[in-house]
Design goal:
The protein is an alpha/beta fold. It is built from five helices and seven strands, in the order βββαβαβααββα. Helices cover 33% and strands 16% of the residues. The protein has a five-stranded mixed beta sheet with strand order 5-4-3-6-7. It has a two-stranded antiparallel sheet with strand order 1-2. It starts with 10 loop residues before the first strand and ends with a helix.
């Protein structure tokens, strides 16, 4: 019988070319994000860094994958992207090698993530939701039924057991992501207290 694939079966590459097995993150809470440095959502880096600093001591990690697939908003080299993020947003979380996140050359990790968590729409309260939707509408009907990554700064939350628990679109508020992380932390604390 074939072993069921988990997130810990994947190996990623950091922005310096080092291979990192995701099994090294067992027991951690992960937020995996595809990003770009010339996007309307690029200021999300500030929010991501705040979230990282808030929960890092409780076993929280962010894995950032730059991607140039959405209107060519990350054409620079891995080194230039990293320098930009550090100098402009003072980021300290792990930045990975630039990847494709959709299509036939999609990084296998993102193929796995989009199979685990479907696209359920953009936050209607965000004024940029309509802009992104209009871009996809031009690509043809049925775009909203496709679970592929729709834009930069799509995020996937993974719990300490490696389960993909949430998908957040670029339009999701940072406070909603923080709440989901806190739920995982609180659940663990409850379990520890009941042992």
């Amino acid at each position: 019988m074939k072993k069921k694939q988990t997130i810990y079966d994947f190996t990623i590459e950091d922005n310096k070319g080092n291979l990192i097995p995701l099994s090294l993150f067992k027991g951690k809470i992960l937020l995996i994000v595809n990003s770009a440095i010339h996007c309307s959502f690029t200021p999300c880096y500030k929010e991501l860094e705040l979230t990282y600093r808030k929960y890092h001591s409780q076993g929280f990690e962010i894995l950032d994958f730059p991607c140039n697939q959405f209107h060519g908003q990350a054409p620079e080299s891995d080194e230039e992207i990293n320098d930009f993020c550090i100098s402009n947003y003072h980021t300290t979380f792990l930045r990975c090698k630039k990847v494709e996140v959709k299509g036939e050359n999609a990084n296998p990790l993102f193929t796995y993530l989009t199979k685990k968590k479907k696209f359920i729409g953009f936050d209607p309260a965000n004024p940029l939701s309509g802009v992104i939707a209009s871009i996809h509408i031009k690509e043809g009907p049925g775009w909203e039924k496709d679970n592929s990554i729709k834009w930069n700064f799509t995020k996937f939350l993974i719990d300490r057991q490696g389960k993909v628990v949430k998908r957040f679109e670029a339009t999701t508020k940072a406070k909603d992501i923080d709440k989901a992380i806190e739920r995982i932390i609180d659940t663990q604390l409850e379990e520890e207290n009941n042992v």
